[in-house]
Fold this sequence. Notes:
Elements (H helix, E strand, L loop, with lengths): L1 H21 L5 H16 L4 H12 L6 H9 L1 H6 L1 H36 L2
Helix pairs in contact: 1-2, 1-3
Amino acid sequence: MIAALTLLLVFQLPGEVIARGLGLPVPGPVIGMALLFIALLLRGGPSDNLRQTAGNLLQHLSLLFIPAGTGIVLYGELIAAEWLPLAAALVGSTFLAIVVTALVLNALVKRRKADEGAQP
């Protein structure tokens, strides 16, 4: 498990360097995750050790929401003052996610039908 966690942190480091060095508005861990994804694609998938460690982290994912909940309590007045843009962003991003999911699903269904029709 230590090796897999080290691997995750090794990919987070270049993500942080890229984000800060280029002044990108994307968090370093997100860039590191994208780099890890590319590396896993090139390698042919994760090892069993990495897969098991990721599964364990996902089982305890709810613990990562505690800081966000604390932030909501701490910045309650600011959230109350800016509720309209926050609500618009929430509704807009939810709608956009639903639309993109529907379009991707539609494209995949069409692709599957085309693949099934092409085979004898």
